[in-house]
Amino acid sequence: MDLTISSLLFFGLLISGALATSPCASPSDDSDLSIVHIYGKCSPFNPPKPESWVNTVLDMASKDPERVEYLSTLVAQKTTSVPIAPGQQTINIGNYVVRVKIGTPGQLMYMVLDTSNDEAWVPCSGCVGCSTTTFLPNTSSTYGSLDCSMPQCTQVRGFQCPTTGSGGCFFNQSYGGDSSFSATLIKDSLTLGTDVVPNYAFGCISAVSGKSIPPQGLLGLGRGPLSLLSQTGSLYSGVFSYCLPSFRSYYFSGSLKLGPVGQPKSIRTTPLLRNPRRPSLYYVNLTGISVGRVLVPVDPKFLAFDPSTGAGTIMDSGTVITRFMEPLYNAIRDEFRKQVPGPFSSLGAFDTCFTASNEAVAPVVTFHFPGVDLKLPLENSLIHSSSGSLACLAMAAAPSNVNSVLNVIANLQQQNLRIMYDLTNSRIGIARELCN
Ligand SMILES: *[C@@H]1O[C@H](CO)[C@@H](O)[C@H](O)[C@H]1NC(C)=O
Ligand SMILES: *[C@@H]1O[C@H](CO)[C@@H](O)[C@H](O)[C@H]1NC(C)=O
Ligand SMILES: *[C@@H]1O[C@H](CO)[C@@H](O)[C@H](O)[C@H]1NC(C)=O
């Protein structure tokens, strides 16, 4: 079964929707929020326009190994305490941002979406090492502090309470593999589109170190206790979806849809798997990969879900290109190379680049899950060199260290797909949608 029928439906929807709004307009009047690429035209961060798209992707993808290692460290109840020092803040993340308001009256922040984190956090006034846009708690009429004795505090990764007496809920967290921050858990209203979530618990950052902390904070869309879904309960009924715009669509935005209303009615779904050791992560049951008509022969242990080791496959919005455990990647690549005329060369993280004129014979890559066969559109499996003369298989091997038991399905492979996370029914839906 493929996704052609739903894709037709969505092209229809898209045409009616696209005429109504300009790409960088303010969010529409319901829970449908725009998602823009941090390097895109609609990004508030005014990044230098990259001279070539492939170099941008390669630059962003060079941070993936750290991201994958970081994801491997997200083990339950692990308390990390890392030194914090003032750092020069630069944009150094390959990610998508969404426009939200915090406090009353609402203060506008462009927060990075992260499906593998639970907590939200924003830089607060006085933050050491943060950029100039900070949240000012003392100008918000709905701001409140959260004492260490509150249950939310013990749910924060890396929390630390004073050994005696009460006090603020402090925490230090690492992020992205090379950065860290220290923050205090506070609560205030969070406005998403027209929805107001009162008393939302999130981190107010006082110091950052490293270059990977999103400049205006992060909205955790994971599945653990402090995530957006957990804190909004009945408002969104444990359902959200996003469509990430193409990396190449400099001007355009995708969307984040919160709650069951407006989600695709006919969408193929596959069960979500729960790993108690990594409660934030969205594990799926990747059972095989086909290249063209060939089901790639692989040792099942590289696909197996194993809660005791954390092994398996996750969907992640913060990794740029899909990473497979090395033997698995090598098997996919070798099959791909059999079906495309060589010679093959490397470009950054990509080791299977070939003359772009042979693209017409490049096989389709399909990810198999129970209930869903995801045939990657060519744009999601190949990437072109800046001159256009080369096409490369846009995937890579995960870093081959001891912790690397994860396969990560990343942004580039999720472009122009609607990915629906339904925690109530413990499933993920995937449908083609041209969202940019
Ligand atoms: C966070 O790190 C800083 C700097 O090392 C330290 O002063 C502070 O106590 C730490 N806070 C927590 C909650 O661990
Ligand atoms: C809020 O706090 C910041 C620094 O923490 C201070 O500069 C500012 O004057 C305060 N604003 C008000 C309205 O108190
Ligand atoms: C993954 O799917 C396969 C095939 O449907 C099934 O046999 C296996 O039990 C599933 N694994 C998990 C962890 O659900």
Quick overview of this protein structure:
This protein is 15% helix and 34% strand.
What does this structure look like?
The strands form 4 sheets. The protein has an 18-stranded mixed beta sheet that branches. It has 2 domains: 26-258, Cathepsin D, subunit A, domain 1 (Beta Barrel); 268-432, Acid Proteases (Cathepsin D, subunit A, domain 1), CATH 2.40.70. Residues 1-22, 27-31 and 76-94 have low confidence and may be disordered. The chain has helices spanning 4-18, 53-61, 64-72, 151-154, 228-232, 326-339, 378-381, 411-414, and strands at residues 32-37, 96-102, 107-114, 121-128, 144-145, 159-160, 170-175, 179-192, 195-209, 218-220, 239-243, 253-258, 268-273, 282-284, 288-291, 294-295, 312-315, 322-324, 345-347, 350-355, 365-369, 372-375, 382-384, 390-393, 395-397, 406-409, 417-422, 427-432. The relative contact order is 0.18. With 436 residues, it is α+β, with helices and mostly antiparallel strands. Residues 81, 83-84, 160, 170-172, 182 line the site of one 2-acetamido-2-deoxy-beta-D-glucopyranose. Residues 96-431 form the Peptidase A1 domain. Residues 1-20 form the signal peptide.
Characterize the quaternary organization of these chains. Answer: single chain
The major β-sheet equals: 18 strands, mixed
Taking pLDDT < 50 over at least 5 consecutive residues as the criterion, the unreliable ranges are 1-22, 27-31, 76-94
Per CATH, what is the topology of the largest domain?
Cathepsin D, subunit A, domain 1
Computed structural class: alpha+beta
| Overall pLDDT metric | 83
Radius of gyration: 21 Å
The CATH architecture of the largest domain is Beta Barrel
GO molecular function: aspartic-type endopeptidase activity
GO biological process, one term: proteolysis
Protein name: Peptidase A1 domain-containing protein
Keywords: Aspartyl protease, Disulfide bond, Glycoprotein, Hydrolase, Protease, Signal
